[in-house]
Amino acid sequence: MAAQRSRPLTDPASLAALLEEARHTLPGVRLFTDAVDRESYRLDETAYLTAGLPGAVALPSSTDEVAGLLRLASRHRVVVVPRGAGTGLSGGAAGIEGALTIVLTRMDRILEIDRANLCVITQPGVINATLKGAVAAEGLFYAPDPASYETCSIGGNLATNAGGLCCVKYGQTRDSVLGLEVVLADGTVIRTGGRNLKDVAGYSLTHLFVGSQGTLGIITEATLRLRPAPGPRSTLLAFFDTLDAAGDAVAAMTAAGLVPVTLELMDRETVIAVEDWHHLGLDVTAAAMLMVESDAPGAAAAAELDAAEAACVAAAGRSIVRAADAREADWLRQARRLALRALERQGTVRMEDVGVPRARVPELLRAIERIAAAHGVRCATFGHAGDGNLHPNLIFDHDDPDAAELTHRVRDEIFRAALDLGGTVTAEHGIGAARREWLPVQRGEGAVAAMRAIKDALDPQGILNPDRVL
């Protein structure tokens, strides 16, 4: 493992000096210093995560204010935690004891929808669903589609390189980013990229900041790629008597060259939880369910689902049904989005995030099932089977005293299994604080040293989100 570096500690007197100066030089910045207010910014949505209480919370409303705060933080050597809506699942925006948390939710304006160049310019505090709705009103489509799209912010999506239900066809967030405005640790404001689809001038700084989880700079504006709005989606559900069979169907669709807009899996535990909540008529006797969607135009959608159905039938799929209309398809898709919330009604849930090459999904499903059973832990698995990204969800009683220890033991074995299959310990949630020790295991010491060199160059004092990612 790489040698651990101690992060700079924020001296209370330094933070007090920063706050006093900020009140005079940045009067528009909202500052929270009461313990009750600060407590709201301690955690993100990662279960069984220990985090510190921020020393103060700042809510700027402009790039200039963010730059001003970082200049002060650099001058006073105050640790800064950038934060969006707080929906992350890796601890990347959780509090650091005594540090300054900078929350971007007040920067919530869509600055321009550029129809001619098929792009949108937005601030980071805009909610993903709000952006989708605004561009849809113009007949356009923003593809990135996290399950939490109704509550997560664009800035958080950028910081984690968020995935979602449409990645199999449209890619992750980075695939829709044309350019960024970023404030560096010393308060310098830079721009990367722009409205050009093709631009190879210098290093690809845009892609460096996307997914860096606030460790290299704070994103204050983004130019994002749009597409013409596709037609209504056609939806197919298929049920299987074993997880292996569902995995085989996914592998068969991949081998056949199918690229549906959505290819999602839910195991029996998840199907039962969703059905108990939403009463959709799902087959709760099945071991697994696949949801396949096409947004291809006209007859092409029917042909795509015909091919998907053939793959499911060949893998012993049963109870294959298609949504009768767009409204029914929306209900089914929403049920998948709310799978985590359905499971959380039954206990405390730790959602994990592993990925493997798509053809190895059946092996990963078997490994997850075997590991959970060996430890006697209840596990519900769902995820984006079409791109190899699965979410094992470990479920415990709210008062289980062994939950935290078991979580990490089972999680580590699942991580090792994913890596042994050529996969990753995080496909879309990010390393953050929760998976930091696994980065050198997956990437190797040399790669982590290169990342550290980049971090040291852009943030020489180490004040930006220390102990995250690296």
Shape: globular
**Spans with pLDDT under 50 lasting ≥5 residues?**
1-6
Q: Give the integer mean of the pLDDT values.
A: 94
What is the domain total for the residues? 3
CATH architecture of the largest domain: 3-Layer(aba) Sandwich
Oligomeric organization of the protein chains? single chain
- Count of extended strands: 19
Number of continuous helical runs: 16
Radius of gyration: 22 Å
Provide key terms for this protein.
470 residues; alpha+beta; Uridine Diphospho-n-acetylenolpyruvylglucosamine Reductase, domain 2; Uridine Diphospho-n-acetylenolpyruvylglucosamine Reductase, domain 3; 3 domains; five-stranded antiparallel beta sheet; 20% strand
At a glance:
It contains 16 helices and 19 strands.
Could you walk me through the main structural features you see in this protein, from its secondary elements to its overall organization?
By secondary structure, the protein is of the alpha+beta class. The chain folds into three domains: 12-106, Uridine Diphospho-n-acetylenolpyruvylglucosamine Reductase, domain 2 (2-Layer Sandwich), CATH 3.30.43; 110-228, 2-Layer Sandwich (Uridine Diphospho-n-acetylenolpyruvylglucosamine Reductase, domain 3); 234-420, FAD-linked oxidases, C-terminal domain (Vanillyl-alcohol Oxidase, Chain A, domain 3). The chain has helices at 12-25, 35-39, 63-76, 128-136, 154-160, 167-170, 205-209, 243-255, 268-278, 299-314, 326-337, 339-344, 361-375, 403-420, 439-443, 445-458, and strands spanning 30-32, 56-59, 80-83, 100-103, 110-114, 119-122, 140-141, 177-183, 189-193, 218-225, 227-228, 234-240, 262-267, 288-294, 318-322, 348-351, 354-355, 378-384, 389-396. The strands form four sheets. Strands 12, 13, 14, 15, 16, 17, 18 and 19 form an eight-stranded antiparallel beta sheet that branches. It is globular and about 65 Å long. Residues 1-6 have low confidence and may be disordered.
